[in-house]
Amino acid sequence: MSEAAAGRLAGRSIVLGVTGSIAAYKAVELLRRLSAEGARVQVLMTRSAAAFVGPLTFETLSGQPVLQDPLELLPDERIGHVVAARSADAIVVAPATAHWLAAMATGLSGDVITATCLATAAPVVVAPAMDAGMYAHPATRANVERLHAFGYTVVEPATGALASGLVGQGRLAEPERIVDAVVAALAARAGGEPGLAGAASPPGGMPRARAGAVDLAGRHVVVTAGGTAEPIDPVRFIGNRSSGRMGVAIAEAALARGARVTLIVGQTAVPLPGAATIIHAATTAEMRTAVLDVLPETDVLAMAAAVADFRPRRRAAAKLTRDQAPTLELEPTEDILAEAAQTAGRLAPRPVLVGFAAETGSLDRAAEKARRKGVDLLVANDVLEPGAGFGVDTNRVTLVVPGNAPEPWPLMSKREVADRLLDRVAAILSARESPAGREAQGAGESVDRTGTAAARSPGEVPE
């Protein structure tokens, strides 16, 4: 799986409609950001939009022919806008002019974008852009309200300097705001189902992603990712080969399910999701501080980082030269997960704790580690196994639930592992919030992933 395909819109088919505003040039950046989130983008343009930005720009960046006419046929003689409408997971119109808002509000399908919107059942996101006074005019406001009544998401334009030299509300919203609105619209669509089930994708289109859940909406998910670096001197450190792919995949999957995500990162080699709150923590000590600081407001903690187990007892103040080859005396680093579990046991509600164990040759220690660490779930893998180690896009893991038999999972992409793991996390949260779960927690008991209460001795670290 490519890095682009690991984003919040991975596998999604997004239709981008560009209308005739001077802000049409900003749609190029919007296309880039949608693609960076993993989306396959089909661009539609009105004739007036092509006067501002040539179709060739969008075709080059999207890899798809731009549709400009509602009667335009695809090479297989299907009607282009009908195929786009049926295969879209979401449609975003940016910029949307006052003229286009009026046409859409009254159902006039004189351009390819209004025709596509009329023919789809997918969520539609509209980002208006126009000159000063136009957006505030009663006619425009009435048209916007009508689009709201259709169920469309309207990303309000910003206030500032406009192309005419005037100042007012009419600037196209920033691309990241529009992308966030597309992600939210898909999440709100009860699992983000496509416009029309079973519709064929346009030629060359990627297969649809499976319908995503929104079962983490309103939750705060904290994920650690990457490897820590324990300094020997100002330029050298003890580290590991972790790229951060697994932790980033979990963060992206949680964002797609509606969660608020904090990503605490050490050394990483992959892009980080822009919608997450990023906290950089280079060393184990820094990561410990960051985790414990956010833990009281955390619903789920997934410790996917490859935390160093040892660090040099003494750090050289200056770079060591070749003839100063040191004998390193090591000391254990902090056990962040175990300390987090102890702290979590004093919190109400208690966060769901997910640990990770990178082993070599055998996973025999995983069950004992899960019990000793006090986690709800432990994800163990053998980093020597092909396709399951550091720096690859796949993983073969075994899920350990304390008290249950280990569950080996097949080789999957790391994003698929993340989604399957979050299915289990969501089940734990749901069980804890059931009447039986709340009663058990009120009585000082723990609740396993099926909602069954388990007695806990005073002072015992909860599972």
Q: How are the SSEs placed, and which strands pair?
A:
Layout: E1 13-18, H1 26-36, E2 40-45, H2 55-62, H3 80-87, E3 90-96, H4 98-106, H5 112-119, E4 124-128, H6 138-150, E5 153-154, E6 158-161, E7 167-171, H7 175-188, E8 220-225, E9 230-231, E10 237-238, H8 245-256, E11 260-265, E12 277-280, H9 284-294, E13 300-303, E14 310-312, E15 330-332, H10 336-344, E16 352-359, H11 366-373, E17 377-382, E18 394-395, E19 397-400, E20 407-408, E21 412-413, H12 414-432, H13 435-442, E22 446-447, E23 453-454
Parallel strand pairs: 1-2, 1-3, 3-4, 4-5, 8-11, 8-13, 11-12, 13-16, 16-17
Antiparallel strand pairs: 6-7, 9-10, 14-15, 17-19, 18-21, 19-20, 22-23
Query: By CATH's scheme, which homologous superfamily of the largest domain applies?
Result: CoaB-like
Would you identify the regions where 5 or more consecutive residues have pLDDT less than 50?
Answer: 1-5, 190-213, 445-463
Query: Which structural class matches the secondary elements?
Result: alpha/beta
CATH class of the largest domain: Alpha Beta
> How many domain units?
2
Count of runs of 4 or more consecutive helical residues? 13
Please name the CATH architecture of the largest domain.
Answer: 3-Layer(aba) Sandwich
Largest sheet: 8 strands, mixed
Radius of gyration over alpha carbons? Answer: 26 Å
Morphology: elongated
Average pLDDT confidence is 82
| Distance between the amino and carboxyl termini | 34 Å
CATH-defined topology of the largest domain: Rossmann fold
